[in-house]
Write a structure and sequence with these properties.
- By secondary structure, this protein is α+β, with helices and mostly antiparallel strands.
- The chain has helices at residues 39-45, 47-71, 92-107, 142-150, 162-168, 178-183, 220-234, 241-266; strands at 30-36, 76-81, 84-89, 113-119, 124-125, 137-138, 158-160, 198-200, 207-209.
- The protein contains eight helices and nine strands.
- The strands form two sheets. Strands 2-3-1-4-7-9-8 form a seven-stranded mixed sheet. Strands 5-6 form a two-stranded antiparallel sheet.
- α1 (39-45) runs antiparallel to α2 (47-71).
């Protein structure tokens, strides 16, 4: 028998605010949909194994978001059901920082979350309910758009809708392309600013957050440790899990490369 899940308090650290003239952009409405990869495969092995994976997923997500939710009632909503998480609100800036922390903490537990953020805040139609009959009827297409975008890529990806990337990078529009970013890294924007981690996907289909880029220092040990872990796991699995590991490893390498180039150019 599995034990009752225990949800632990929040990490406590508040999201770092962006630097530069981001005041007008700090309240961008959004909807995020995420799906934990591979749960159906764990259920084939053992319902207890799947439960423990989901239990850890729920606890980590709660740790990352509960403190912020307590301080921002009315401005953010987080709902989890089975292997899915749905977040909507009006402060994209802060939530991106929290999502990066969430992804990293899940990765270090070998849990792969794939999700997408789209513009427009999810709204739902109030419906008549009873205690044991709840309804969730979306009034707009935000959830459908997020689910659709999330499914376009493989691996543990944090995707960002094109229109949101344009809003986030309004002050540095050249950063909408890799060549534009490398041409002008803009010394006025701090090295840890989340905007530096917004990058086109390899096929220029949409944008993603380079969430493996964490901390002010380029920690080659962390990159190598995670790369080795994915390589080892990949030798024991077949498709489609293998593709998720490969794509996540390729993302890690893009993160390391952009962080390395950024540090070299900013400090030379």
């Amino acid at each position: 028998m599995h034990q009752k899940p225990v949800e632990i308090g929040a990490f406590g650290a508040k999201p770092k605010m962006m630097t530069g003239n981001m005041t007008q952009q700090s309240k961008i409405e959004f909807t995020f949909y995420g799906d934990l990869l591979g749960i159906s495969n764990y259920y084939r092995l053992s319902s207890e194994v799947a439960y423990q994976k989901l239990n850890r997923y729920y606890n980590i997500t709660f740790q990352c978001f509960s403190g912020y939710c307590d301080e921002n009632i009315g401005n953010i909503n987080v709902e989890m059901f089975s292997d899915s998480v749905l977040i909507w609100g009006n402060d994209l800036q802060s939530v991106l920082v929290l999502l990066q922390k969430l992804y990293i903490n899940l990765i270090d537990e070998s849990l792969l979350l794939r999700g997408a953020i789209v513009s427009e805040k999810l709204s739902q139609d109030p419906r008549k309910t009873v205690q044991n009959f709840r309804k969730f009827l979306p009034e707009n297409k935000a959830l459908a758009n997020a689910v659709g975008l999330e499914s376009t890529q493989k691996g543990a990806r944090l995707l960002l809708e094109n229109t949101l990337a344009e809003k986030m990078l309004r002050e540095v529009p050249d950063w909408l392309t890799n060549e534009g970013y490398l041409k002008d890294l803009n010394q006025n924007i701090q090295e840890e600013d989340i905007r530096r981690k917004i990058c086109p996907t390899p096929k220029n289909e949409t944008y993603e957050i380079l969430y493996f880029w964490e901390g002010e220092q380029l920690n080659h040990n962390n990159y190598e440790k995670r790369r080795t872990h994915f390589k080892e796991l990949s030798q024991f699995v077949d498709e489609p899990i293998l593709t998720h590991f490969r794509e996540t490893t390729m993302l890690l390498e893009r993160c390391e490369l952009r962080q390395k180039i950024t540090k070299e150019k900013l400090h030379n």
